[in-house]
Design brief:
This protein has 365 residues and is an alpha/beta fold. It folds into two domains: 206 residues, FAD/NAD(P)-binding domain (3-Layer(bba) Sandwich), CATH 3.50.50; 103 residues, FAD/NAD(P)-binding domain (3-Layer(bba) Sandwich). The protein is 20% helix and 25% strand. The protein starts with a strand and ends with a helix. Bound molecules: flavin-adenine dinucleotide (FAD). The site of flavin-adenine dinucleotide (FAD) has 35 residues, from helix 1, helix 2, strand 8 and helix 7.
Length: 365
């Protein structure tokens, strides 16, 4: 991989020099850039352009700081990867960031509407967003951090910032079952849409909202659905309007369900269940293992952020959200560690204001 300094669409190689006026002067011999490019150096870098990261970028900007938001995918990448036809649990005003109103035709927004909303907010604030750049390393210390990213072409980009806000979410890393056959191509950890599973035998593993929603959607679109959950009933967090629907489908025998059960093994044409009545072999075409997701703990640890022993919560000041590493803040769902149901868009969207208030005391004067 070649190491390059890159600015916006223009890629400046080590063999180029930048004049005082910012023009590129090609050199004949390779040499290092003498000065970092001005637009690669900002007050605040936000890692992750989810709803929280965007809110952090906005609040830092509103507080008068020059900020950049970097995401390895598109903006609100997690929402983009939600089930295609999903409707939010939350009413639109609770998803708002930057005081920009979000109104929708129905009581709850659709994924499409939310994607549109966050695009418009990003445009409105002219946020400096770098999409499709994965943050690979963070080095340096308070007031002088270096962030290295790589893009889809494996090009490397270097940035500098006085402060960092980490808002990397949890939806990229699924929890795995660790059972034989989980690596088969018929096994998924994300549910997108029902059509490909029409007239197929589908097993859904899990007992929370994602599993219940996928089971209902697949059944309504002609799949033969079996839900397998290790608990004795569906989880208490399943939304009150989803629970009776799935429970009634199970009672009617329209969705088969195994409680106090687990999938022991996945084979190309069947699965083996461990049930209270012993082992059972089920004919099977596809498996959705929807048992949750977790933050990238290694990424946090690599920056020196300490995690609590059991729930892996980043050590941070609850008011300022500054972590144990001076100058590095944490925001959004990662603040809750493995308890990903404690922080969601509704409450994580306020983290930007908390952090910006502290940045003002640190970066000003
Ligand atoms: C199906 C589903 C429905 C939901 N419905 C609701 C709801 O109705 N209401 C609600 O409030 N919440 C809901 N949630 C929860 C909500 O999606 C999350 O709480 C929220 O997305 C967390 O926001 P965040 O900004 O902290 O993280 P995320 O939205 O996950 O954003 C993190 C971003 O960081 C990026 N990133 C990660 N690592 C790197 C890296 N190394 N370099 C660069 N970028 C990186 C990711 O690409 C991602 O874009 C739902 C979740 C799911 C799965």
């Amino acid at each position: 991989m070649s190491r390059e300094q890159v600015s916006d669409a223009t890629q400046i190689s080590e063999t180029d020099t930048v004049s005082e006026t910012g023009e590129q002067i090609p050199d004949t011999l390779p040499r290092a850039l003498l000065h970092p490019r001005p637009d690669n150096s900002v007050d605040v870098i936000v890692i992750g352009a989810g709803p929280t990261g965007l809110a952090c970028g906005i609040e830092a900007q509103r507080a008068g700081f020059n900020s950049m938001v970097i995401d390895k995918g598109c903006i609100v990448n997690s929402l983009y990867n939600y089930p295609a036809n999903m409707t939010f649990f939350t009413t639109p005003e609770l998803l708002e960031i930057g005081d920009i109103p979000f109104s929708t035709a129905h009581q709850k927004p659709t994924r499409e509407e939310a994607l549109e909303y966050y695009r418009k907010v990003t445009e409105h604030y002219h946020l400096n967003v770098r999409q499709y750049q994965k943050v690979e390393t963070v080095t340096g210390q308070d007031n002088n951090f270096q962030v290295t990213t790589s893009d889809r072409l494996n090009r490397i980009f270097d940035y500098r910032a006085r402060k960092l806000i980490v808002a990397t979410g949890y939806y990229d890393l699924p929890n795995y079952l660790g059972i034989p056959g989980e690596e088969l191509p018929k096994v998924f950890h994300y549910y997108r849409e029902p059509h490909p599973y029409f007239d197929c035998d589908v097993v859904i593993i899990g007992g929370k909202n994602s599993a219940a929603i996928a089971a209902l959607d697949l059944w309504r679109h002609g799949a033969r659905v079996t839900l397998v959950h290790r608990g004795e009933k569906l989880h208490g967090h399943v939304k009150y309007w989803i629970l009776p629907d799935i429970e009634n489908r199970i009672k009617a025998g329209e969705v088969a369900a195994y409680f106090n059960s687990s999938v022991e093994e996945i084979a190309p044409d069947h699965v083996i269940l461990n049930t209270p009545n012993g082992r059972e072999k089920l004919k099977n075409d596809f498996v959705f293992a929807l048992i949750g997701y977790h933050p990238d703990y290694d990424f946090l640890r690599a920056m020196g952020i300490e995690l609590s022993p059991e729930q892996c919560r980043p050590v941070c000041d609850p008011i300022t959200l500054e972590s144990n590493v001076a100058g590095i803040y944490v925001a959004g769902v990662i603040v809750a560690g493995s308890k990903t149901n404690e922080i969601f868009i509704e409450n994580g969207r306020f983290h930007g204001q908390q952090i910006a208030a502290h940045l003002k005391t640190k970066l000003e004067g």
